[in-house]
Design a protein that fits this description.
Distance between the termini: 32 Å
Shape: globular
CATH class of the largest domain: Alpha Beta
Helix content: 25-40%
Number of strands: 27
Strand content: 15-25%
Structural class: alpha+beta
CATH architecture of the largest domain: 3-Layer(aba) Sandwich
Number of helices: 19
């Protein structure tokens, strides 16, 4: 790792972040032995893809070893530092990521979804979602559930949308709200919530070099109120019987245990619970802290007058048992990054009304006044139905219980849970009235489901990202072609209509080719010539799969 080789160890040891580690009980030399080395490349294998076995073989060919404590997904550690693959491995792994077959994600970041119980969780909220690694992780685990992915910052929404499309997930709804003021949804509320809180990133020093020089203890104290505000709102949105995970990529107790303590004071109906016994086998985690030191920005311990710092100091004895059930991942314990997480539960008996606390006291019997419909925006979608939907369902043997949405010239698909729990019911406004049903309002929805089909000159053309969803939800209607013709097409050779089987007509079509690794589907557009409707990255991966090699960049 170039930057650490150029940095003297005594310079790293003098940084405030090293003082934080020592205040948490680390032996400085042993800690530096780990954290001055870069993280290994880690990634998740995307399940439910037709070529998952082929992708698995590729990862193992490049030295990938399965991470045994990740059980909700299949995850791998690669034998090179993060972002430092070379040669063929660099090229192939980049293509596998961009085409959605794998997702590069730090192993520590996989923890929240690993520990969150998802039994009977139909509506799941990822409250601080961008860039989307946890959103895609939980959506892949719960394909029939609806994952509401929230991101308040417009620039980061685009990254979230891109990641949703990269892995072709149809069960994600992307919304944009300040997490502290996230709106109500219809009763009973969210079944499960992930709140990966904004933080100073003090545990990311192995992947983010700037943390070594930029991190200051005062920054964590500055984040505390924001973190508590988001956590409290999450607790109020969770239905009785539901679970939520609070997490950060920080090791500073002010951003972790102190936040949980404040949450429990403000939301006494919530309880911290132990992780399910079946998760994280073999991973070394430390119990949460009940006492800690406050640090000045030079790394020294603040003593004497602590006026105005009550929110950051160790909590009262009554909260100690709860804080001990939170968990810390320290880099030196498992050769990972650092992380903090707490699993919380809203007991059924704590709220006998049976709804999230934000709905308690609202008019739930639909006797109150109806609010006027919200003005339409460019993001609005409408349910799609009728002959065009029926034709596509029949043609591709799609699940009959999918929800269909139309925006402009695109048809999107998604799980029925989004309609039943979010779109169809009215939502109480907290003032004696309710927002009308048949609308996502008051959610500010940016994207719903996955745009799977596009209207092209009166033909419903299957989109590249939609093809994966159709493979997952049905069986694409395709015409078989031989291996040679498929490879010619993947090499961007211009084909004539006469080169294709006669049963294909003009417009949108799908070709299929059976290989030893399963069926390859190739969407095409047929007019005077035959056009392959795949981007270059997908085209190159399919060539690798079918021929064992990929063209050079300048052949693309």
């Amino acid at each position: 790792m170039v930057w650490r080789e150029a940095t003297a160890r005594d310079e790293l040891a003098a940084q405030p972040i090293a003082a934080l580690a020592q205040s948490l009980g680390a032996n400085l030399e042993a800690w530096l032995d780990v954290v001055e080395r870069p993280l290994p490349e880690t990634l998740r294998l995307t399940p439910n893809r037709t070529d998952v076995e082929w992708t698995r073989r590729i990862l193992k060919r490049f030295g990938g070893e399965q991470i045994r404590w990740v059980t909700g997904h299949e995850a791998y550690t690669m034998p090179f530092p993060r972002g430092h693959a070379e040669g063929e491995a660099k090229q192939v792994l980049s293509l596998l990521h961009t085409t959605g077959r794998v997702t590069r994600q730090e192993a520590a970041s996989m923890l929240p979804v690993e520990v969150l119980p998802l039994d009977r969780a139909e509506i799941i909220l990822d409250l601080c979602a961008a860039p989307g690694s946890k959103t895609t992780q939980v959506a892949e685990r719960a394909l029939e559930s609806t994952v509401v992915a929230n991101e308040p910052v417009s620039g980061r929404v685009n990254t979230l949308v891109s990641n949703r499309g990269r892995v072709s997930l149809d069960n994600v709804i992307i919304v944009q709200h300040d997490g502290r003021h996230f709106p109500r949804i219809p009763p009973p509320g969210f079944d499960a919530i992930i709140a990966d809180l904004p933080c100073t990133g003090s545990a990311t020093m192995r992947k983010n070099r700037d943390v070594w020089w930029d991190w200051r203890p005062s920054a964590g104290r500055g984040m505390h109120a924001l973190q508590v505000g988001i956590a409290v709102r999450a607790a109020n949105l969770l239905r009785p019987g539901g679970h939520m995970v609070l997490s950060t990529c920080s090791l500073d107790p002010v951003e972790n245990e102190a936040v949980v303590a404040d949450l429990l004071r403000r939301c006494p109906w919530m309880e911290v619970v132990d992780f399910p016994s079946t998760v994280l086998p073999g991973l070394s985690l430390r119990e949460g802290l009940t006492t800690w030191s406050l640090l000045a920005d030079d790394g020294s311990t603040i003593g004497g007058d602590l006026e105005g710092m009550d929110a950051f100091r160790p909590p009262e004895q009554s909260l100690h048992a709860s804080l001990k059930r939170t968990r810390r991942l320290h880099p030196e314990d498992n050769d990972t990054g650092g992380f903090f997480l707490a699993l919380l539960h809203h007991p059924l008996e704590a709220t006998p009304e049976g709804v999230a606390r934000t709905l308690v006291g609202c008019d739930l019997d639909e006797t109150g006044y109806l609010r006027d419909p919200a003005p339409r925006s460019r993001h609005d979608v409408d349910p799609a139905e009728g002959p065009e939907v029926e034709d596509l369902v029949r043609a591709h043997a799609l699940q009959r219980d999918l929800a269909w949405w139309r925006r402009g010239k695109r048809l999107a698909i998604g799980p029925a849970s989004a309609v039943r729990r979010l779109w169809a019911p009215p939502t109480p406004d907290g003032k004696g009235g309710r927002h009308r049903g048949a609308s996502f309002h008051p959610l500010r929805v940016i994207h719903v489901g996955l745009p799977a089909f596009a209207d092209n000159r009166g033909h419903w053309r299957i989109r590249q990202e939609g093809l994966v969803a159709v493979q997952r939800r049905g069986q694409p209607r395709a015409v078989e072609v031989d291996h040679n013709l498929a490879v010619r097409l993947l090499h961007n050779e211009v084909l004539e209509v006469d080169d294709l089987p006669p049963q294909l007509s003009t417009g949108s079509g799908i070709l299929s080719c059976t290989t030893e690794d399963g069926v390859v589907h190739l969407p095409v557009w047929i007019q005077a010539k035959v056009t392959l409707m795949l981007d270059d990255d997908e085209r190159r991966v399919l060539l690798l799969r079918m021929t064992g090699s990929i063209p050079m960049e300048d052949e693309a």
